[in-house]
Amino acid sequence: MRSRFILWQVYHPLQAEGGAQVTDKAHILYGQEQGYHIEVVTPDRVNSFLMLEDDVVIASNITADTFPPPLFQNLISRGIKYVFFPHDYAPICKHRLFFPMRPECHSCAQREAWLPILLHSALIIWLSPLHRQGWLFLCPEIRQHPYALIPSPIDPEKFYDMGRPRKDIISAAGLWPFKGRGNLIAWAKEHPEEQVDVCGGIQEDILLPSNVKYIGDFPHAQMNEIFNNYERSLFLPNTPQPFNRFVAESYLSGCKLMGNRLIGCLSYPWFKSREEVARYCSQSPVMFWRAVAPLARV
Amino acid sequence: MKPKILWNAKDHPCLNSGYGLITRHLTPLLSKRYEVIIYAPVYQKDHIGRYQKMLVLPGTKPDYGEELILNHYREHGCNALIMVGDMWPVVRSDLPKLAAAEEVYWIQWGAVDYLPPWPNFILEGLRYCHKIVPFSQWGEGKLREYGFTNVAPAIWPGLDTKLWKPYPRNNFPKVASSLGFEEDSFRILIVAANQGRKNFPEHFEGIRLFRQKNPEVKIKLYVHSTIKGDRNLIDDLHYFQLADMTRIADEYTVACGAYSEEHMVMMFASADVVVAAALEGYGFATVQAQAVGVPVITLNEGASQELTHGGILIPPKDWSMEISNIKKAVPNEMAIATGLEEIWRRGPDRARWSKGAEWVAANLDWERHVAPQWYQLLDRCFEEKKRQCWSVPEPSKRLNKQARAIVEVV
User: Mind spelling out the 3-state secondary structure of chain B?
Assistant: First the structure.
């Protein structure tokens, strides 16, 4: 019997539109085209889902409360292989993208529970070299563990330069506190001559400088159109971001980037030209299945 | 900055209830090390007050809704909520949900006073408590048997041992007289809330049997409780033919909580025996009797087993089930009668029961014994909480530096 790939996800990738779900959706669709048997298991059915010994679990975007350690201990005791594919710093860091990289993170209470689970995994997938560095800061013990670096999948046919006239600066989700709201506001205040438009990532009223304007929340499919109106994109997170698809997408859409060293995609050595970024990001599902498929029994 | 604790023992520290006394004696000691804010809906109903230098917050759930504790906790930026009291009503509140969502760091110090099997609502609700601190080692053992891993070592509530210490039997003749006690009488004392679980009928039947067997003994009984509660004690006393030899506490003074701690000491010290044969998670009457050198008759089940050092443990004869599916033990009435007879035969020499007083002095002083255990526990809790990273931490200095260095890709 062929192995099934069981994707554990907090949200169903075909029903939600967060970055992790967009990534998983691309991997699932490509995997299905290749003929792999893929099942998505969300927390509501993880306890009732019948696991088989030949299954390969891909623990993608899980949290400690939705997929707690005993589920993994069960896999380990049954000899079921699993891939660990974090999209942020959960399940160890419950603050996820707020991962502060503080010295006390080494004695984090969650670390004790999850380190053995990481070490028992067949493979760990990171979204970028910076993402891996963050995890190594938390768990230096996994330095020698098998891993793959797989960038977020982006379709260059959906994100491209439309050749329109451009002006000003765009930032997506930059007003989330963990995506560097303070840095963005400080930068705008220091550059009053620049107009910064911000989309997405806002849930409360915020007092913004006069040169920062919130333009609303847009569906992912509309973002290429939006980016093509702007000359530059700005993103200044204050904690290490695993990849940050907005940065890569806006770059492919023709924006010049202004960022910092806490943006995961910028830690790839190939993030130097649009051609290279398009090549690697479009190949992401291929790279993903090339890493994962050998774990299956044929 | 000192960690902030919201202390909820229900009763105001000025009240002489068990929980009032706990708050009165322990919170000033805790406030030496932490910032303690007291929430005391019983007595402090509608304005903020102070006890010593600590804030006392008001409000009851019926007036302000379920979220009142959460509002107090948030408003004052508390780091932990210590709930003192019975666990079973707490697990039916919103608190387990708030604790599960990490809205509140919940420490529960209280009585475990139910026989297995425990109802599911208790087992489910206590799972979310961050630290369960039982009043007794018996309770701790039961929690561990049920597989709880969030259990701290038991901490016995204390006594003011400067006040609660042995006194000669006839030291307080006026108080004794007010209780109906005479010098040549065998003085029996019951101090218990008027609740079904306190086994008043079995206590009364035990005393009746003792009286029946020893008609020559001049028995006087004083019941420190309210006449009406779960039972009508006047009716009970008539039923068990004890009304002629019994006095009951003044209803109004009990209702106002106005019997002072000093009065309670004198009351206990004037008795020859205290009967407290109920399944308890702690048992204040048990330790108070022993503290003043008076023997106590307790139940050989629950916390009394570890607390009775100067007295007689009697076996349960059966169990009963309360409305909330909680099982309680019922004492053997004949054993109560036998216990009374043994204590009466030994005579009023309190030296025979001195082990109880010695044990209390060596284990239950607030300052020497109870507070240090709390310091140790709370320090550990705050350390654990830090490791659990409750609040969103500031990024490290290194990250801040990296965040400021602009990179451009054209």
Answer: CCCEEEEECCECCCCCCHHHHHHHHHHHHHCCCCEEEEECCECCCCCCEEECCEEEECCCHHHHCCCHHHHHHHHCCCCEEEEECCHHHHCCCCHHHHHHCCCCCEEEEECCCCECCCCHHHHHHHCCCCEEEECCHHHHHHHHHCCCCCECCCCCCCECCCCCCCCCCCCCHHHHHHCCCCCCCEEEEEECCCCHHHCHHHHHHHHHHHHHHCCCCCEEEEEECCCECCCEHHHHHHHCCCHHHEEECCHHHHHCCCCCHHHHHHHHHCCCEEEECCCCCCCHHHHHHHHCCCCEEEECCCCHHHHCCCEEEECEEEEEECCCCCEEEEECHHHHHHHHHHHHHHCCCHHHHHHHHHHHHHHCEHHHHHHHHHHHHHHHHHHHHHHCCCCCCCCCHHHHHHHHCCEEEC
